[in-house]
């Protein structure tokens, strides 16, 4: 892994990290010249490790969606199983999902609801960042050009669930997707995909939940917090409506009200 | 050119590859194995499935060097001489082949699934082949072929 | 735990029923026809050995790529390929100046330039071709071709194109043509109707999305230009290519590689002429070309989006009295098969219903969107969505059960269809009855597992004329030959696009002559070897090519009987051929095998060969009334029933049950018939619920499978098939066909069910969750 980091530091923009390739290779297939050099991370075993310690699960950066699909953390496992088809799930990694920072990122959204923390490493050392501070704007993250996402940590004691709305029964990029988690202190974490330039949390809705609002009321607040756009997948008003329905259903399933 | 060393359908291979060539194009154009198909270039249809260390992967989404030191199996690697793999046989017997373009990718997906889980439930079958698009058959006979293959494999144990 | 094969077999037997009528046409027990014999080409497809267009490539070949228009509507002022020619690895760059024949092609009228010379009309128009040592270089060189355009105001809607001051897309204006049908006196009958319903339905642009992308190769060896690209009608393609290249027909050979789906999408010329041009220019070099998915979607013709204004009038007891229909057909940039699609839409305007007064007007309007052409259903699919939708609305207005309303008005044997043609044997009632019984219509339940889920039941009935019809010459030819080693060779240019033509023709030949299937070797789709068979389209191959094959086989059989009679010294009319042996049934000890027949036949100077032509005529529809005594050679009937759930909060649909009944006359291979039904229904599910080519300012926004949504296995339920066999005296062993009706019946049944569930109709396709949600909200 050190070699990978050295190479990246040396090459800078002329080299990109390649894990699964499910975002990068699409661009190459379209004839877009992505970079002069690719630093293949897929053969670094430490980057596929899953470790459990102190009530958290530590996922190394190259853990695949298929691997995440087997974790005992419901929103992440369901989100991961909803990514593409089995082939994409074996190739795609959580680090790749985070680094691409698509507003529709399934894994990214579930991780947001889990208060995930990421470890970013470079030749200059490693730093940790709460995922909430990782997504800056549309497809832009806090990742420095020479940094690699080496670890993602999530708690094991949140109860969580996930819903995704697509245009068909499988292999969808979400119209809207929602992850809701309840902490041991009975606080709500609400994260949504495809309703903003990045996956987002809903702090106002979460605050209302803490004050005792029921699922329906929380859903209404979610609708006021999000700013989806009308695109070729769906209109903004439909997405707004859907987001509320999904959050309400998730809260009902997790809390019964 | 990248010096690629990998195992292909059971044989060790050593080739120089263009680093930005997809695994799909490499298999088809360089290795003359045209059984694996390309139909979408976006990892959305599954026709390009190959097995890499037993796991199904979209070869159109991979760069050839990514299979360094790995074991790759393509559709051509399933039959033993003239003896077809049970999944191939079932696809043929159950009428799950029409135009045939999605067939290699589906067979590889089914192969990977049944290797890992020899007794899948219907839902597990769906998870395993939901990434394959077929435009001709309507999937019913494909499901039948997969269940029938699992059944026969199960009987042999 | 997966189920045992026995249980699966029982389930399949319960799901799929084949019922034969006890009619005067009952024939003797058959040995090959009527059996679900394994596909003759399945092994190669399952092992990856079968070669489709792209599989014929080699690194040693040269690669071609086309430059497309930069504007949807523009004049071309100049084309400068000089910089592109300088790119290392580029062999040549061709423009319209290099087109050696006539720079035009088109199926009904030649209005599409091979390489545009003075005007572009949609973004998929080709301006130039680069040939290089590899694809990447060809692609890079494309960007160096300088084209100077004068953009013209572009038209993307029919309304804009019909405005009096609209720029002309074609010299004659923006209307391709009109079609009219005048049966009875619809305005008067409508005025006298007790109940009238009226609505506007809009269907969408749909892509064929076959998986096997356009690809192939060509080579000119000085004497023969060989082009290997998948099409749907080899000989017509050959004529068009020869015209464009200025090449005599006998110097042009088209060989069809294995074909991965077509659905009408390979009817128009794709890359054949480009390849031919390059091969002729570069002599003795093999050129290959392939489209990416994006290019394939952006360039290819689409299903015609049609806006249907439909007015239906009835008596208060539900008897239909009048229909007035106007179809606005978005033609896109070029004519293609638009006139025929418009005509098929109008001739099916009232589908399976008996309506004495029908007035139809169809207008085809050019726009700068993708040209529209053939796609499974060919106008009748869009029409069916309209007429079934209106029947549902009529049922609601009358307060009548929608199945009862339909049953009351279905055509029966001896009734007239929309074109005035009398259908001698109609089985619409039997088909509809079969699905209503299967779904237990009278006891259908609306109880759902949760309050936000609403259940809906939908039905549809299909009446579809097969073949080209309208007096358009429709023929198929076949040849049969007995070889020295006792094999029956069968020659036909019929294209197998996946539907199973290869088995259909082989099983018919085997049955007709009396040989086992293994003794038949089909040789298909090579203009050098096989006689013209017409296109694989219009649900015509079983009826036309199957008949041609049966006729040729019957002729060959006569020769074999003659040979056996001479050799065995028996009376010729006592000679039977069974299981590949000829003998006299009374004295069966004296037999001849096929090999012996071949040897004796050769010795006695028999040709051991037979050819045939099957060309049943139809009569053109009257230009004013649209009526014809024989608009189509025969009709297909079918019926669907659909049970689904709508999530009223999200608009999502889950199909719980789908039943499709089709009368195919005779199922030559029942397994393949079921495959076609299930495949057609699935394509219909796509069209009804999720598929849509999204165009903005002439550009397709979703030219890929990420955003052009095709049904996955999770979107398709168990499709229960009921196959009826009421033989048609004109078809081979009574067979009719099955390709298009399963798709035609699906959209209407699904929309009918959604209307039932939510109480409001969805008027625009596809009925996505958002559209359903909006319909509920309105």
Reading side by side through the largest sheet of chain C, how are the strands ordered? 4-6-2-13-10-11-12
Total DSSP E strands of chain C? 29
The CATH architecture of one domain in chain A: 2-Layer Sandwich
How many beta-strand runs of chain A? 13
* Most strands sheet of chain A: 5 strands, antiparallel
Q: What composes the largest sheet of chain C? A: 7 strands, mixed
Give the strand order, joined by hyphens, for the main sheet of chain A: 3-4-9-5-6
Helix content of chain C: 25-40%
CATH uppermost class of one domain in chain A: Alpha Beta
Please give the most extensive interface between any two protein chains, plus how many residues each contributes.
Answer: B-C, 62 and 65 residues
Shape of chain C: globular
Helix-and-strand structural type of chain C: alpha+beta
How many domains would you count in the coordinates of chain C? Answer: 3
Element order, helices and strands of chain A?
Answer: HEHEEEHHHHHEEEEEEEEEHHH
> What's the pLDDT, averaged over the residues of chain A?
93
Strand content of chain C: 15-25%
CATH secondary-structure class of the largest domain in chain C: Alpha Beta
CATH superfamily of the largest domain in chain C: Aldehyde oxidase/xanthine dehydrogenase, molybdopterin binding domain
Query: How far is the first residue's CA from the last residue's CA of chain C?
Result: 46 Å
**Structural classification of chain A:** alpha+beta
Q: What would the average pLDDT of chain C be, to the nearest integer?
A: 95
């Amino acid at each position: 892994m050190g070699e990978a980091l050295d190479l990246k530091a040396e090459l800078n923009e002329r080299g990109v990290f390649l894990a699964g390739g499910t975002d990068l290779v699409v661009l190459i297939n379209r004839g877009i010249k992505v970079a002069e050099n690719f630093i293949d991370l897929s053969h670094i075993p430490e980057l596929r490790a899953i470790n459990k310690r102190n009530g958290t699960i530590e996922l190394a950066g190259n853990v695949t969606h298929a691997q995440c699909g087997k974790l005992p953390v419901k929103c992440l496992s369901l989100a991961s199983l909803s990514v593409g088809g089995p082939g994409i799930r074996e190739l795609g990694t959580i680090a790749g999902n985070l680094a691409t920072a698509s507003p529709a990122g399934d894994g990214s959204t579930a991780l947001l609801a889990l208060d995930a923390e990421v470890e970013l490493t470079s030749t200059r050392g490693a730093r940790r960042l709460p995922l909430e501070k990782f997504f800056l704007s549309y497809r832009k993250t806090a990742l420095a050009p020479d940094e690699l996402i080496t670890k993602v940590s999530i708690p094991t004691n949140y109860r969580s669930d996930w819903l995704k709305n697509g245009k068909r029964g499988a292999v969808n990029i979400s119209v809207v997707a929602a992850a809701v988690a309840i902490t041991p202190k009975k606080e709500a974490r609400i994260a949504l995909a495809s309703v903003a330039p990045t996956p987002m949390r809903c702090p106002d809705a979460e605050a209302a939940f803490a004050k005792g609002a029921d699922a329906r009321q929380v859903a209404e607040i979610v609708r006021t917090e999000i700013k989806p756009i009308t695109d070729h997948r769906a209109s903004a008003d439909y997405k707004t409506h859907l987001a509320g329905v999904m959050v309400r259903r998730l809260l009902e399933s997790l809390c019964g009200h | 050119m990248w010096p690629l060393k990998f195992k292909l359908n059971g044989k060790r291979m050593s080739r120089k590859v263009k680093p930005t060539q997809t695994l799909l194009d490499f298999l088809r154009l360089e290795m003359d194995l045209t059984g694996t198909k390309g139909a979408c270039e976006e990892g959305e249809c599954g026709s390009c499935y190959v097995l890499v260390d037993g796991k199904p992967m979209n070869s159109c989404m991979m760069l050839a060097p990514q299979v360094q030191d790995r074991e790759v199996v393509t559709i051509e690697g399933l039959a033993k001489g003239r003896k077809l793999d049970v999944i191939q046989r079932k696809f043929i017997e159950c009428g799950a082949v029409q135009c045939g373009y999605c067939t290699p990718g589906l067979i590889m997906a089914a192969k990977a699934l049944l290797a890992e889980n020899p007794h899948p439930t219907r839902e597990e079958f769906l998870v395993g082949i939901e990434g394959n698009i077929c435009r001709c058959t309507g999937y019913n006979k494909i499901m039948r072929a997969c269940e029938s293959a699992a059944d026969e494999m199960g009987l042999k144990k | 735990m997966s189920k045992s094969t026995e249980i699966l077999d029982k389930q399949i037997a319960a799901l799929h029923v084949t019922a034969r009528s006890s009619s005067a046409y009952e024939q003797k027990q058959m040995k090959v026809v009527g059996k679900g014999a394994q596909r003759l080409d399945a092994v190669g497809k399952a092992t990856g050995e079968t070669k489709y267009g792209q599989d014929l490539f080699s690194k040693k070949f040269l690669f071609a790529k086309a430059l497309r228009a930069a504007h949807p509507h523009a004049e071309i002022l100049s084309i400068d390929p000089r910089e592109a020619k300088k790119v290392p690895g580029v062999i040549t760059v061709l423009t319209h100046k290099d087109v050696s024949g006539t720079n035009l092609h088109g199926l009904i009228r030649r209005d599409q330039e091979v390489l545009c010379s003075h005007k572009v009309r949609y973004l998929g128009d080709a301006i130039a071709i680069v040939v290089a040592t590899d694809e990447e270089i060809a692609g890079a060189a494309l960007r160096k071709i300088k084209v100077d355009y004068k953009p013209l105001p572009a038209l993307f809607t029919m309304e804009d194109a019909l405005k009096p001051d609209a720029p002309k897309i074609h010299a004659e204006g923006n209307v391709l043509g009109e079609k009219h049908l005048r049966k009875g006196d619809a305005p008067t009958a409508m005025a006298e109707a007790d109940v009238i319903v009226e609505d506007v339905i809009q269907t969408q642009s749909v892509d064929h999305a076959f998986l096997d992308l356009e690809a192939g190769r060509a080579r000119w060896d000085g004497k023969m230009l060989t082009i290997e690209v998948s099409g749907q009608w080899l000989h017509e393609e050959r004529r068009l290519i020869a015209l464009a290249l200025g090449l005599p027909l006998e110097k042009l050979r088209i060989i069809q590689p294995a074909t991965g789906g077509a659905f009408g999408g390979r009817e128009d010329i794709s890359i054949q002429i480009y390849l031919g041009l390059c091969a002729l220019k570069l002599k003795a070099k093999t050129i290959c070309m392939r489209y990416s998915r994006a290019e394939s979607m952006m360039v290819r013709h689409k299903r015609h989006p049609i806006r249907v204004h439909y007015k239906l009038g009835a008596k208060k007891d539900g008897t239909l009295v009048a229909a007035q229909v106007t179809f606005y057909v978005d033609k896109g940039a070029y004519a293609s098969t638009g006139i025929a699609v418009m005509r098929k839409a109008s001739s099916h305007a009232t589908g399976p219903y008996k309506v004495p007064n029908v007035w139809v007007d169809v207008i085809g309007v050019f726009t700068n969107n993708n040209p529209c052409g053939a796609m499974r259903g060919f106008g009748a699919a869009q029409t069916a969505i309209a007429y079934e939708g209106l029947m549902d609305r009529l049922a609601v207005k009358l307060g009548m059960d929608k199945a009862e309303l339909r049953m009351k008005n279905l055509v029966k044997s001896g009734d007239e269809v929309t074109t005035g043609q009398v259908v001698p044997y109609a089985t619409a009632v039997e088909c509809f009855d079969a699905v209503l019984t299967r779904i237990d219509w009278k006891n259908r339940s609306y109880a759902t597992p949760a309050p936000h889920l609403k259940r809906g039941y939908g039905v549809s009935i299909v009446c579809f004329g097969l073949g080209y019809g309208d007096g358009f010459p429709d023929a198929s030819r076949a040849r049969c030959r007995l070889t020295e080693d006792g094999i029956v060779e069968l020659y036909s240019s019929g294209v197998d696009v996946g539907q199973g033509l290869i088995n259909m023709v082989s099983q018919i030949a085997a049955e007709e002559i009396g040989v086992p299937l293994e003794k038949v070797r089909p040789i298909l789709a090579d203009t050098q070897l096989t006689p013209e068979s017409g296109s694989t389209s219009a649900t015509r191959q079983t009826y036309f090519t199957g008949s041609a094959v049966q006729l040729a086989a019957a002729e060959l059989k006569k020769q074999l009987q003659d040979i056996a009679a001479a050799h065995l010294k028996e009376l010729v009319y006592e000679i039977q051929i069974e299981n590949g042996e000829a003998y006299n049934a009374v004295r069966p000890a004296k037999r001849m095998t096929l090999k012996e027949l071949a040897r004796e036949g050769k010795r006695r100077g028999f040709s051991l060969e037979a050819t045939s032509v099957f060309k049943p005529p139809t009569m053109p529809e009257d230009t004013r009334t649209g009526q014809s005594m024989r608009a189509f050679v025969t009709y297909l009937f079918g019926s669907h029933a659909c049970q689904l759930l709508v999530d009223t909060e999200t608009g999502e649909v889950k199909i719980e049950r789908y039943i499709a009944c089709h009368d195919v006359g005779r199922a030559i291979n029942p397994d393949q018939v079921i495959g076609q039904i299930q495949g057609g229904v699935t394509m219909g599910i796509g069209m009804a619920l999720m598929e849509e080519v999204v165009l903005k300012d002439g550009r397709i926004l979703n030219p890929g499978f990420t955003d052009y949504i095709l049904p996955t296995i999770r979107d398709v339920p168990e499709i229960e098939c009921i196959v009826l066999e009421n033989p048609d005296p004109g078809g081979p062993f009574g067979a009719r066909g099955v390709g298009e009706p399963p798709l035609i019946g699906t959209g209407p049944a699904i929309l009918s069910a959604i209307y039932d569930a939510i109480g409001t109709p969805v008027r625009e396709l596809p009925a996505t969750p958002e559209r359903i949600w909006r319909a509920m909200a309105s």
